[in-house]
Amino acid sequence: IEPTNTSIYNAGDEVAAVRAAAAGINAQGGINGHKVVVDYCNSQDDPNITASCVRQMISDKVVELAAGIDILGPSMVESLSAAGIPVVDEDALSLGEMTASKAFPLSGGIPAAESVETYVAAKKGFKKILLVANSGSQFETTFERAVSSTAKKYGIGYAGVVDFPVSGVSDFSPYAAKIANSGADIVSIPLSIEQAIPLIQAVRALGSKVQFIINSGAFTNADITKNASLVNGLYIVNDVPPVNASTEKQFPIIKTFASQMSAEASTGDSDANINDLRSFALRIWDVLQAQFQIMKGMKEPITASSYLAALNSAKDVSLNGILPNWTPSAHISIAGLGATRYSEADYWLVQIEGGQQDLVQSQPINAEQVQG
Question: Which of 30, 233, 311, 361 has a CA that sits 20 to 30 A from residue 77's CA?
């Protein structure tokens, strides 16, 4: 269940990644001889349509919700959990999604990434960090708690938050002025690319050289090429490595991912174009590879209930080096959030240099260790 072709959010590349993974496993004989079928519903960021999508999945007796994202995520995940359907690797946007009884979110979400960003800023020698977030949002208040507590721990100043609306911004100059006058030398911007690019442009127009750090894999290779000079030097704290020729050497599985996405694109799926993929697509595809391995080990017929049991008993499942091995039933606490259903919170530090996303270090940073 994901929205595509909407004015708010478009997750077509994530849908394409699920389809590519299914096609790839089916080409290898499926799961113990059974074909994997993708049941997709476009929620269109509409509450009524989202509710209809949930009813469709329950009626179709799906085994799981693979990935998925929606601004109405809490009700979506709550309804699926109530129906006994596990929700795996969903991009959770609320505490309700992160704590639902049958939810298995994988990486630690924005608050954990904010802690890692602040840690990185301190270790790179920056003196004061500023956060851009919607202070009116209960969820985004957790970002503030994560940044402020981590800043205090590592001795970097916290310049507070620039209140930024979730949507509807057409004039970025007032926010740019607040950033330029904040006294911060690095700014965390947990924003979509549609918001981040014009905000950076507005700040640069004021002559400010402040550094930016973002916790999103929303920048595609095409986006970076298009905005190369503007985003040069940008730090990205991301839950998977970028997809390019350099990372293919370190992570051979990325070559398989690129090949399967190319095969999906050849079917006419324009959302599978490798240059237009956000890194979220790689994480979703990779986690599905792990789930296929869990399913292959099941002796009984695979249903939502039997797969839920298999998830709860699986341990140390390989994620191909993209992320540490996965134990779905493991749960962690995150600064700013408290107890969650997240099973890990590891992030790769990436920096854009010369129009390419480069890994800054060879190992991910663990948010739990950062937060203590």
Answer: 30
**356-359 and 346-353 strand pairing:** antiparallel
- Residue-wise pLDDT tens for the chain (372 aa)? 998 888 777 889 999 999 999 999 999 999 999 999 999 999 988 889 999 999 999 999 999 999 877 666 778 888 999 999 999 998 877 778 888 889 998 888 888 999 999 999 999 999 999 999 988 777 788 899 999 999 999 999 999 999 998 778 899 999 999 999 999 999 999 988 889 999 999 999 999 999 999 987 778 889 999 999 999 999 999 999 999 888 998 999 999 999 999 999 999 999 999 999 988 899 999 999 999 999 999 999 999 999 999 999 999 999 999 999 999 999 988 877 788 899 989 999 999 999 889 999 989 999 989 987
Whole-angstrom distance, CA of residue 246 vs CA of residue 360: 12
Helix segments in 131-277, DSSP class H: 138-154, 173-180, 193-205, 221-226, 228-231, 245-250, 253-265
d(CA 56, CA 243): 34
| Bridge partners, residue 357, by sequence | 352
How many CA atoms are closer than 13 Å to the CA of 36, on its beta-carbon side? 26
Find residue 235's DSSP bridge partners. 213, 351
Q: For 108-149, give the DSSP string.
A: -HHHHHHHHHHHHHHHTT--EEEEEE-TT-HHHHHHHHHHHH
pTM over 0.90: yes
Tell whether the torsion through CA atoms of 211, 216, 221 and 226 is positive or negative. Answer: negative
Q: Alpha carbon 43 to chain centroid distance?
A: 18
Name the 3-class secondary structure at 260.
helix
